[in-house]
């Protein structure tokens, strides 16, 4: 039976027993519009902990009466709560509860509850409101002080160019926190929320904490928190994916101008007001240039290997070294910008690290061989370079991973590889045991390396080899031991491995879409929400490294350095921006209304209650309310200032966000209805002289 819920202010008892019933009464969280993030997390955690007190699966919370209280919470948040940090707080709690391993499944149930409430809350909003909540960044507790010092040369300008995506901290934090690794970062985020949720009944102690425990989440938006929390179901929802796709296509941008005092804020792109060079940060164009860069990389690689000059470094090889250096520096910059958490989520970054390692080994062996005139070492260097193709060719084709078909296979192969490595532990144990026995029994005829090769051939399917030599190994123990080994390797182990991998594929393929959309979302966020204003494409990134990096060692960092980087970016990337402008001009000709996806609901597009706000039960006054005006597309200006209150709730409850297939089916049904109406109109007017249009 669902729990009765009521609204309660912070500081009141969280449970009460009715005098005529033993059913618990849980009060809904009273979240004010001006509550800070830490207060929102505290209040929501109290309610979630009260209503989710038994282990429940995700499907039970989503489809059965076990999730009735979650629906009540969604209704309450939609009707009465206007705090912009609601979704951020729910996803932070999802991360906190998901990291708890209590052995009973209660933490996982609460994590699923937070994720369900987060996406159901978004489905009750218009598209523009969903963008407001998803891209709202948690402000720093001392934002006012920072705004007055925004132009301070000591920590302005260039500091924004170097801050990592997941390394935002408050000024009260340790200055070395930006340099902590990703594992420490995850623990830090987990502990920050734990400080608020451990003492559940001390609701009045929130303001008494000396340090803000949520400072680690400063300047993170809801999508970034979802990526950290592995909220894959949330990220795979249609309403969220529409926002991420808008960022991918450049409909939503974070930088609109390249000036010294530009600030990173989410905006809707307007080509008539935005700086054309801001399009360099669009993830779609970043990926297109990345493919072109790797194609040039591959051509230089083949050219050097075909030429393969043992005695001197050719100009083509020098150009290959330049490409390697630019690639290496770009990867380092990407790691610093994104942080280790986002960087490790992209499987292709593993290929990049291996390519860099191979390139470094090749360069070292090549230079040492030429310096010492040891040409055998030079030959080894070229042999090492030939290994680069194993990773460079798939890296060039990594663009296919953005396709739903190919991108779905990658998570499956990844999980199957993990299961295969685990199974190989058993194989190695059996292999070593039989190899030791065969080597000792047949030591007079076969050496250990020879026997190791024979056993390896048998394991990979050459069973006849074992039957041919089993009596040579030993006439007494050889035949039975070889028969047992062949049976184990060819039938039992291989059959078990095949069945296990098949089950792994079947298990993962059911959630492969969520895995694919998670990797895709991480890439989009990694490429777009970095705090680096001037992002140089490789190999142009070597120019600011050689020009400005040495000067910063001599002169203090100030606005002149940032202005110099901007001028250098405009001079070197003007052709790339020109190509982008031509592409967008042609695209606009084909689809002139391409940015209508985020213009918000039009008049009558959503059904709203016609009752005035005053007739809504338990409606509390909302200070500072400003209605959202229905206007034409705005200029490229800040859109995430503060999510506005919603005056009227929707009539019907919107459950889980529709999938892409459901959306397409709905659009197709609407087209069929219009076509049917047209046919009926034509048939009804066929007996008259005029046909209605």
What is the N-to-C order of secondary-structure elements (H for helix, E for strand)?
A: EEEHHHHHHHHHHHHEEHHHHHHHHHHHHH
Major β-sheet profile: 3 strands, mixed
Q: Structural class of the secondary structure composition?
A: mainly alpha
What is the global morphology? globular
The unreliable regions are 1-23, 144-184, 199-210, 598-655, 687-693
Oligomer: single chain
The beta-strand count equals 5
Helix content: 55-70%
What is the residue-averaged pLDDT? 75
Distance between the termini: 56 Å
SS summary, helix count: 25
What is the number of domains?
Answer: 4
Q: What Rg, in angstroms, do the CA atoms define?
A: 31 Å
Order the strands across the largest sheet as they lie in space.
Answer: 1-3-2
How much of the sequence lies in strands comes to under 5%
Walkthrough of the structure:
- The protein is mainly alpha-helical and 693 residues long.
- The chain folds into 4 domains: 245 residues, no CATH class; 120 residues; 107 residues; 35 residues.
- It has 25 helices and 5 strands.
- A 3-stranded mixed β-sheet has the order 1-3-2. A two-stranded antiparallel ribbon has the order 4-5.
- A hairpin with a 6-residue loop joins strand 2 and strand 3.
- Helix 1 packs across helix 4.
- The two termini are 56 Å apart.
Question: How do the helices and strands line up, and which of them pair or pack?
Answer:
Blueprint lengths: L3 E5 L7 E2 L6 E6 L7 H15 L6 H6 L4 H13 L5 H14 L6 H18 L3 H8 L8 H6 L9 H5 L19 H16 L24 H7 L3 H4 L2 H12 L2 E2 L13 E2 L14 H25 L7 H31 L2 H25 L2 H12 L2 H8 L7 H38 L6 H12 L3 H11 L4 H32 L2 H17 L13 H13 L4 H32 L69 H25 L9
Helix pairs in contact: 1-4, 3-5, 4-5, 4-9, 4-10, 12-22, 13-14, 13-17, 14-15, 14-22, 15-16, 18-19, 18-21, 18-22, 19-20, 20-21, 23-24
């Amino acid at each position: 039976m669902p729990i009765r819920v009521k609204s309660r202010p912070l500081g009141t008892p969280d449970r009460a027993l009715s005098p005529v019933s033993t059913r618990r009464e849980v009060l809904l969280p009273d979240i004010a519009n001006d509550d800070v993030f830490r207060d929102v997390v505290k209040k929501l955690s109290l309610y979630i902990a009260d209503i989710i007190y038994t282990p429940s699966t995700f499907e039970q919370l989503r489809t059965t009466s076990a999730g009735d209280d979650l629906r009540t919470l969604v209704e309450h948040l939609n009707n009465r709560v206007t705090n912009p940090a609601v979704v951020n707080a729910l996803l932070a709690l999802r991360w906190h509860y998901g990291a708890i391993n209590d052995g009973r499944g209660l933490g996982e149930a609460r994590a699923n509850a937070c994720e369900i409430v987060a996406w159901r809350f978004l489905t009750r909003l218009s598209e523009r409101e969903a963008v407001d909540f998803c891209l709202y960044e948690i402000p720093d507790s001392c934002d006012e002080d920072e705004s007055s010092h925004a132009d301070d040369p000591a920590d302005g300008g260039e500091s924004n160019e170097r801050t990592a995506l997941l390394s935002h901290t408050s000024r009260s934090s340790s200055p070395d926190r930006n340099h902590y690794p990703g594992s420490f970062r995850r623990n830090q985020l987990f502990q920050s929320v734990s400080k608020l949720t451990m003492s559940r009944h001390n609701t009045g102690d929130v303001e008494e904490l000396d340090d803000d425990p949520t400072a680690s989440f400063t300047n993170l938006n809801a999508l970034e928190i979802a990526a950290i929390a592995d909220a894959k179901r949330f990220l795979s929802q249609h309403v969220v994916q529409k926002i991420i796709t808008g960022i991918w296509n450049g409909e939503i941008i974070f930088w609109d101008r390249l000036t010294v005092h530009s600030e990173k804020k989410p905006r809707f792109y307007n080509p008539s007001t935005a700086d054309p060079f801001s399009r360099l940060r669009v993830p779609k164009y970043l990926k297109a240039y990345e493919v072109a860069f790797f194609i040039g990389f591959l051509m230089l690689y083949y050219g050097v290997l075909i030429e393969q000059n043992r005695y001197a470094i050719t100009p083509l090889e020098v150009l290959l070294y330049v490409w390697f250096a630019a690639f290496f520096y770009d990867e380092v910059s990407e790691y610093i910008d994104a942080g280790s958490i986002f960087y490790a989520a992209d499987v292709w970054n593993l290929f990049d690290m291996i390519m860099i390692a191979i390139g470094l080994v090749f360069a070292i062996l090549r230079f040492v061989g030429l310096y010492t005139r040891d040409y055998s070492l030079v030959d080894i260097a070229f042999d090492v370079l030939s290994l680069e193709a194993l990773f460079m060719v798939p890296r060039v084709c990594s663009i296919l991973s953005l396709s739903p078909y190919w991108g779905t296979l990658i998570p499956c192969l990844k999980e199957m590889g993990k299961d295969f490595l685990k199974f190989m532990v058993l194989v190695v144990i059996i292999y070593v045991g039989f190899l030791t026995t065969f080597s000792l029994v047949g030591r007079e005829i076969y050496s250990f390396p020879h026997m190791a090769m024979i056993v390896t051939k048998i394991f990979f399917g050459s069973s006849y080899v074992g039957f041919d030599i089993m009596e040579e190994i030993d006439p007494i123990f050889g035949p039975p031991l070889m028969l047992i080994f062949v049976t184990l390797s060819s039938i039992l182990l291989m059959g078990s491995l095949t069945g296990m991998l098949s089950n792994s594929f079947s298990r993962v393929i059911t959630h492969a879409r969520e895995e694919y959309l998670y990797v895709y979302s991480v890439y989009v966020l990694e490429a777009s929400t970095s705090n680096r204003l001037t992002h140089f494409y490789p190999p142009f990134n070597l120019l600011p490294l050689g020009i400005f990096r040495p000067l910063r060692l001599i002169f203090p960092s100030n606005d002149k350095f940032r202005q110099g980087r901007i001028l250098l970016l405009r001079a070197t990337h003007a052709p790339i921006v020109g190509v982008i402008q031509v592409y967008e001009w042609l695209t606009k000709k084909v689809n002139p209304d391409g940015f209508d996806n985020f213009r918000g609901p039009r008049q009558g597009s959503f059904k709203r209650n016609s009752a005035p706000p005053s007739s809504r039960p338990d409606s509390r006054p909302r200070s500072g309310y400003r209605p959202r005006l229905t206007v034409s597309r705005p200029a490229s200006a800040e859109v995430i200032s503060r999510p506005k209150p919603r005056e009227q709730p929707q009539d019907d409850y919107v459950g889980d966000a529709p999938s892409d297939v459901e959306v397409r089916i709905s659009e197709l049904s609407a087209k069929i209805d219009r076509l049917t109406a047209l046919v009926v109109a034509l048939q009804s007017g066929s007996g008259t002289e005029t046909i209605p249009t």
